[in-house]
Design brief:
The complex is a heterodimer of chains A (212) and B (328). Chain A has 212 residues and is of the alpha+beta class. Chain A is built from 5 helices and 8 strands. In chain B, α3 packs antiparallel against α6 and α5 packs across α9. Chains A and B meet through β1, β2, α2 and α5 of A and α3, α4, α6, α9 and α11 of B. One fe (ii) ion binds next to α3 of chain B.
């Protein structure tokens, strides 16, 4: 016997009816690695963290993040970095500055011959999103953090910092800007496109219904 | 979201005696100050367990909730409604993605969550174990189930866990469209031909009992519930949510001249509370434990999708990939 559904397409799947044996636990990485996505809301604005995506590689991560995070919220730029590549400082309390609280900075475990670019993201308040503070040149994550503290560490509360090498960030290109333009005839997916009050008022007048 | 109907049972982690008192005090003080908790913070085991459970159930509810409405995309009347229904269903699946990631920051992998969903170990909102017989059923889901979900989500967005709040902020913005879209669809039917009115009334009659169970049974007030409220995991009692829902939507149903299939439903003007026939909690328990009209179908469809996609995921997997939980 196969499963009968109200949806003929489900019925046509010929799924077995009744008890099915439990599935084996999904293997590790069945859902891939994670990447973190950052949006630029408008021209000139700093990139801001929007959330993670699961993807098999950077390019797919970019597509997933575009779909997931820009489908509904306008944006003009997108950065993607593999979670593994982002170094995270400890979190401090709201109102505090993590740069001031980090007295001992660990010795770098890895150092590059030449200075390279790192992107620095700050979280100003718990529950909010990390925002791009700027780019520094350094030979290690630790040095990048020191540099970041010197260059943009003084202004106000910073509860957490993310550090990632620029070469590990996939950035949308300037010449691809047109990929962010949404066609105007998608109004059907906006709340504002639905105006029911006229119909309701007309109905109430004709039928003398009341709300209570 | 369809995270309603959470039953917060006491667990073996209820014993806070085993937690480090200094750390616990610091954690509680942070929440009392109105600060959010972030993934790397120290947290009591009970906090972690309950949040995983709640966010995971919410995620499953989004993905399973997309099924009854999803089946109506191709049969929605007219091109515009097909497009709108499709946009809504895509939003719901997107909500699941956001929520799985939020739960993942607490230490349960997406692989484990999906396995537990398919094996019936984790729950999703019980209302999706009921069928959407007609287009009108789909409209009632879009309007009233989403309305219930919004009541829940707005409350939870103010909760203490950073990643969950961030996800809910995005989700709530999209839900505004769902609610308007659903209301518009119901109004269209209710103010249409006699046949359309009859269809929407019949769908409302079918969905009312599940809707009344959506927020779950009255909470037993226990130290357990009090703890979860103090930690801003549980933001409102199930009864408060149900009352708020009735306050907001019963008048909107009545103004369309539709009736609610409960002769006892009325607002007590003295207490300000809605009175209604107690929902059938035995049926609720029976259905949530697997014996509902659509449980088997929902899980079978999910399972098939997972199984049929497995070879694609295996082929795409980077052999050097390494699992790291998402950051925030
Ligand atoms: Fe949703
Ligand atoms: Fe929904
Ligand atoms: Fe929704």
């Amino acid at each position: 016997m196969s499963l009968k559904s109200l949806d003929p397409r489900v019925t046509r799947l010929n799924l077995p009816e009744g008890e099915t044996p439990a599935i084996e636990p999904k293997p590790e990485l069945d859902q891939f690695e994670t990447y973190e996505a950052f949006h630029q809301k408008k021209e000139g604005a700093a990139h801001t963290y929007v959330g993670p995506v699961h993807a098999p590689n950077e390019d797919v991560a970019f597509l997933f993040a575009k779909e997931q995070y820009s489908r509904r919220f306008a944006c003009v730029g997108l950065w993607i970095a593999r979670t593994e590549h982002i170094q995270v400082t400890p979190y401090v309390g709201d109102g505090e500055n993590v740069y001031e609280m980090m007295r001992v900075v660990e010795e770098p475990t890895e150092r590059s011959e030449e200075a390279e670019a790192y992107e620095i993201f700050h979280l100003k308040k718990r529950g909010k999103a990390h925002t791009h503070a700027g780019r520094v040149m350094a030979t290690s994550y630790q040095e990048a953090l020191q540099e970041a503290r010197n260059q943009f560490g003084e202004k106000g509360p910073i509860v957490n910092v993310w550090v990632v090498k620029s070469k590990h960030v996939l950035q949308s290109a300037e010449e691809d800007k047109d990929m962010w333009t949404t066609i105007p005839e998608k109004k059907y997916r906006e709340a504002i496109a639905y105006k029911v009050m006229d119909k309701i008022t007309k109905y109430k007048e004709e039928h003398k219904t009341t709300a209570l | 979201m369809y995270g309603g109907g959470n039953v917060f049972e006491a667990t073996k982690f209820d014993d806070l005696q085993t937690e480090d008192p200094a750390k616990l005090a610091e954690f509680e003080a942070r929440i009392a100050r109105g600060e959010k908790i972030e993934p790397n913070d120290w947290m009591p085991q009970l906090y972690r367990k309950q949040l995983i459970r709640m966010i995971e159930q919410h995620a499953h509810s989004e993905i399973i909730g997309a099924l009854p409405e999803g089946t109506w995309i191709t049969r929605a009347p007219g091109f515009r409604r097909k497009m709108a229904q499709m946009a809504k269903v895509q939003d719901e699946v997107g909500h699941a993605q956001l929520l799985y990631s939020a739960a993942e920051t607490l230490g349960k992998t997406r692989e484990q969550m999906l396995t537990d969903l398919i094996n019936g170990k984790s729950k999703y909102s019980n209302v999706f174990n009921y069928p959407a017989f007609t287009w009108a059923d789909s409209n009632i889901i879009s309007w009233l189930i989403d309305a219930g979900a919004i009541v829940n989500q707005m409350a939870n967005a103010k909760g203490s866990y950073g990643p969950y709040s961030r996800a809910l902020e995005r989700i709530c913005a999209e839900e505004a469209f769902h609610l308007k879209y659903g209301h518009d669809a119901v109004v269209h039917m209710a103010t249409g031909t006699p046949k359309q009115r009859e269809m929407i009334q019949a769908a409302l009659n079918r969905w009312w009992p599940p809707i009344m169970t959506f927020f779950g049974p009255s909470d037993k007030m226990s130290t357990h519930t009090e703890t979860l409220m103090r930690w801003k995991v549980k933001m409102a009692s199930n009864d408060e949510c149900r009352q708020q829902f009735l306050d907001m939507y019963v008048p909107k149903i009545w103004e369309l001249g539709l009736t609610v299939p409960d002769p006892n439903l009325k607002k007590n003007m003295e207490t300000g509370q809605w009175e209604f026939t107690e929902p059938d909690w035995d049926e609720f328990k029976r259905v949530i434990n697997g014996d509902g009209p659509c449980n088997a179908e929902r899980l079978a469809v999910r399972r098939t999708a997972e199984e049929r996609g497995a070879w694609v995921r295996r082929a795409l997997l980077n052999p050097k990939a390494k699992y790291v939980k998402p950051l925030a």
